[in-house]
Design goal:
Helix 5 runs antiparallel to helix 6 and helix 7 runs parallel beside helix 10. The longest helix is centred in the middle third of the chain and has 30 residues. The protein is an alpha+beta fold. Strand 4 and strand 5 form a beta hairpin. Strands 15, 16, 21, 24, 28 and 30 form a 6-stranded antiparallel β-sheet that branches. It has a 6-stranded antiparallel β-sheet with strand order 17-20-29-22-23-25. Strands 1, 8, 11, 13 and 14 form a 5-stranded antiparallel β-sheet that branches. About 15% of the residues have low confidence. It holds the Pfam family Myco_haema. This is Variably expressed lipoprotein and hemagglutinin (VlhA) family protein. Keywords: Lipoprotein, Signal.
Length: about 675
């Protein structure tokens, strides 16, 4: 029975299987294990498996317990492989992780070192499972620590991080900004920006958390960031400022609020001109601004100030800097060069004044301004018919020739040099010119005061002008005295705006009058005239006995000495016709005099309009509204009807003369135009 079972089994295996079993039994030294008795299957499969698993033991020679050492080795290898895979995966995060700390050099360096150590461990093929796991754990700890350190740093240095982040964004404009600064006017802007971009690069290169040394100072980062951010927002304004300073000037009109003084009195209520060619003796105010007047409604002979002066004129004067701690200061922006030129008009309040003035630029020590009668005017050279180096004569030189030269130097140009400024006088407006050194890039402050310990007073000073070059003198003079040329190239005429230009009256009654009713003239576009030149009447019947309501009846000058002094910046030497608007009911005359040439004047009479509502226009070139011509010198007829002007500033005095043994005064006059007589016209007059 046993044999039959074996044969049956063999026949079922087939020859190939039998051979394999035989071979296996030959190589196996195991003890055969008897097969268990088969048990009937209550649910047999319909199709037996053609490849049943070979039974253990017996002729197969198999091991009934295969786990042992080989299985343990396979499991360890798999665990090591898994550990290496985990480390490799963690190493793959290096670029992304390290990049997160590009602004934290110390953290970045430490993290990079941890990645390098872990990479070395991963490349060690002999590394044990424990070594690989330790490398992974150490790297993960370093990654976590980097994140924690960054978070702690940011929390502890929030202001620094904010400023640093803003700085990173601000420097992106470097190329665009610097490329737009190639013009010579922008050298200072470019130099300063380049410096601050360099500082920014140093900060950003060192990072928020440097590899060594201290972290950046938050204030230092803010300074650099604020400068560059400000440049990004305002670079066009900076460029405009630099262009203005280089090509013309920056004007700073006087601001009463910037004057620190104990004087509380307002300027006289009846004043209009506020600048006078005669002494002001009883003065308790320190600031005065030009005022425009108009007829009082219903009372044509009574005048009142305009309710809204607005920006009709910015002519004003600081009369005094007397008193402890009395100062006048102003601030201006400079995005040009470090050297500049300061200009301002000045004069004396009264002839007996012993004047002194000092200025302080930013935090520097005060600098005394030297006033000297021997000063040379900067435009005197172009105005002189002689050698161009003529000095203004001193007060004790009374020869006729010296007096003419002195008057001509004074009237042709009362602008002073930067080194020494001409001594002020009551009847002349002079222009100071001061060199400013070490100007800051950005905001600068200039402060004026009287030197302490001296029994002196400050001269009157007017609006301030700053330029980065002394080639703009004429532009400054034209603005101070409101002169406008007819054209920039080869000009032949200049118009003086009486309301907007600095000038001097001799009497308190002389005033600016708003006229707006000529033949239906648009009252929104009025004409401004100067009245009470010459004559004897007092405006508003004010006399020396009236002092109520802060009214002052001085200076008080009448007839031909009641003058108006203006300044004409002539484009060329030559004879000039005069044209202007006027207002008068009856015939009245005008006399224009300049001391640039001895006894140089023109007198003429304008035609009355039979009322005070019609504006006329006189022109000596073609006798428009001119009744007669007067004398030029020594009672000789002025056939040319012109006045001799020299190139540069000319002091011109306007008044009226006697008519029929009376002096009714000059007509009200408006803006004046001085036109050069051409050679052709001059030949035609001969």
């Amino acid at each position: 029975m046993k044999r039959k079972n074996i044969l049956k089994f063999v026949s079922l295996l087939g020859i190939d299987s039998f051979v394999m079993l035989a071979a296996a039994s030959c190589t196996s030294a195991t003890t055969p294990t008897p097969n268990p008795e088969p048990k009937p299957n209550p649910n047999p499969e319909p199709k037996p498996d053609p490849m049943p698993n070979p039974p253990s033991g017996g002729m197969n020679g198999g091991n009934a317990n295969p786990g042992g050492g080989q299985g343990m080795m396979d499991s360890a290898a798999q665990e090591l492989t898994a550990a290496r895979t985990a480390l490799t995966s963690l190493l793959a995060s290096k670029n992304a992780n390290v990049e997160m700390y590009s602004d934290y050099a110390k953290i970045k360096n430490d993290l990079t070192a941890a990645y390098t150590t872990a990479l070395t461990a991963s490349q060690n093929q002999a590394g044990t499972l424990e070594q690989v796991k330790n490398a992974t754990s150490t790297l993960q700890t370093a990654i976590d620590k980097a994140a924690s350190d960054k978070n702690d740093f940011n929390n502890q240095n929030a202001d620094l991080v904010s400023a640093y982040t803003s700085l990173k964004d601000a420097v992106k404009s470097e190329t665009t900004n610097l490329e737009g600064l190639s013009h010579a006017n922008y050298i200072a802007i470019k130099d300063n920006l380049t410096t601050y971009y360099g500082k920014a690069k140093n900060i950003l290169t060192a990072t928020l958390y440097p590899a060594s040394g201290e972290i950046p100072k938050v204030d230092a980062v803010k300074v650099v960031n604020n400068f560059i951010t400000n440049a990004n927002s305002n670079i066009e304004q900076w460029k405009n400022n630099a262009n203005m300073l280089s090509d013309s000037f920056l004007k700073k009109t006087l601001d009463k609020q910037q004057l620190t003084s104990n004087a509380e009195l307002q300027q006289p209520a009846n004043y209009s001109f506020v600048g006078y060619s005669k002494d002001i003796t009883d003065r308790k105010y320190n600031f005065a601004k030009r005022i425009v007047w108009k007829p009082q409604e219903g009372r044509s002979s009574t005048y009142v100030p305009l309710e809204n002066q607005g920006d009709l004129t910015d002519v004003s004067w600081i009369y005094s800097l007397a008193g402890n701690e009395t100062k006048y200061s102003f601030t201006f922006a400079n995005y040009g060069t470090t050297t500049g030129y300061l200009y301002f008009p000045y004069k004396s309040v009264k002839s007996s004044d012993n004047v002194a003035l000092q200025y302080k630029l930013n935090d520097a020590s005060p600098v005394s301004i030297d006033f000297n009668n021997s000063a040379i005017s900067p435009s005197q050279e172009s105005a002189s018919d002689a050698d161009g180096s003529e000095m203004a004569t001193t007060a004790d030189d009374s020869s006729p020739e010296s007096q003419v030269k002195a008057e001509r130097a004074s009237s042709t140009s009362d602008a002073s040099t930067s080194a020494v400024n001409s001594a002020p006088s009551v009847d002349k407006i002079k222009v100071a010119k001061i060199i400013l050194s070490e100007l800051k890039f950005g905001q600068n402050t200039i402060e004026f005061s009287v030197p302490t310990g001296q029994d002196k007073v400050a001269p009157m000073i007017g609006n301030m002008y700053i330029s980065s070059t002394d080639k703009n003198d004429n532009l400054v003079y034209n603005d101070i005295f409101s002169n406008t040329l007819d054209k920039q190239d080869e000009p032949t005429s200049v118009t003086v705006n009486l309301l907007k230009g600095y000038s001097l009256a001799a009497d308190h009654s002389t005033y600016f009058y708003q006229f707006s009713s000529s033949n239906g003239m648009n009252e929104n576009n009025p004409t401004y005239l100067v009245g009470f030149i010459g004559g004897r009447g007092n405006r508003n019947n004010l006399n020396s006995s009236v002092t109520a309501d802060n009214k002052v009846a001085s200076p008080s000058i009448q007839t031909s000495n009641r003058t108006l002094t203006i300044y004409v910046n002539a484009p060329k030497d030559g004879q000039y016709y005069i044209k202007g608007s006027y207002l008068t009911s009856d015939n009245r005359n005008l006399k224009f005099t300049t001391t640039a040439t001895a006894n140089n004047s023109i007198t003429f009479t304008v035609k009355g309009k039979s009322n005070w509502n019609t504006l006329g226009t006189f022109n000596t070139a073609d006798n428009d509204d001119v009744e007669t011509s007067g004398s030029s010198s020594s009672d000789q007829t002025n056939e040319l009807k012109t006045i001799k002007l020299n190139k540069g500033l000319n002091k011109v005095v306007i008044t009226s003369v006697m008519m029929d043994n009376k002096n009714p005064g000059a007509p009200y006059i408006g803006n004046l135009t001085f036109t050069l007589m051409s050679p052709t016209m001059m030949e035609a007059k001969k």
